[in-house]
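queue> holo job accepted (NDP)
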Amino acid sequence: MNPIIIGSGPAGYTAAIYLGRSGHQATIIEGLQPGGQLTTTTIVENFPGFPDGIDANELMGNMRQQAINCGAEIMHNTVVKADLSRQPYSITLDNGTTLTADVLIIATGATAKYLGLSDEQKYQGMGVSACATCDGFFYRRKTVGVVGGGDTACEEATYLAGLCEKVYLIVRKPYLRATQAMQQRVISNDKIQILFETNVTGLYGDDGVEGAHLVHRKGESDEHTSDLPISGLFLAIGHKPNSDLFKPWIDTDKQGYIITRGATPLTNLPGIFAAGDVADPNYRQAINAAASGCRAAMEAIKYLKE
Ligand code: NDP
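queue> job finished
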């Protein structure tokens, strides 16, 4: 039985490379977004080894090819069901196939969060997005809003400023949470205007988003509302780990991140290892995901030997 890797981001591919090079052919279940979250970004400038940066799709394509060269079998499916109650563990794919394995590496990553407004669903694909690099092109020379004050929001706002006429960065706190370098990029960009202490409460428009309803200084004595004319709203308020399928058996924290033993990829079940963003509430960087994929594979190799 091949070890199964669920997920195809830097963690999954790296795990497959290490497994393959130690004689264990891995089966990778690629999921809905082959290459993972990184494929929704443009240039990656902080992955060591590429002094001028590298196109994210090229980076992930290279990792995928390297995994294949090391013997990995790639399945273009998603996992719809899991039974981790006993070994061999079994997973069911969207095409109805059931696979079993004594070793599983969960590298399913995390998914963008939404505000929870009914208007987000109403205007999904008609002005609401959680991926500027995927959808920004549709808003060329238009005015858009980006919600969030972290690194993702600053990165998305900066990217959109390169395409759009104007970008409002809508931040609920009176400050940005992003790293200094990212903040500086936003602050020095003439096309970006930051709206601090502002929340989006709804959207309006007939055939798509024409604007957002805002509330400023919520809960304060000078709380007030306004309408902001925008053609698109991009959410950049964090991520939810993709661990739901495994929760009946695998320990997670209250946000759903898989709990691993210290800095190891060991979960509460023998032979099941977690790697990448699904087990990383803090760093969420491709290089960390790749490193944890390596650790997961090394633990899996040790486990298979024993
Ligand atoms: P963060 O959790 O860092 O930031 C989320 C932002 O969204 C915060 O400003 C938060 O506000 C805001 N927010 C959350 N919920 C709501 C809500 N319901 N309404 C309005 N605003 C909300 O997430 P990121 O995705 O930005 O970053 C996650 C990690 O990934 C970080 O460690 C970051 O450094 C890293 N990262 C690094 C990048 C890089 O180095 N190139 C690029 C992108 C991310 P509040 O502050 O009030 O909680």
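queue> The first strand starts at residue 4 and ends at 6.
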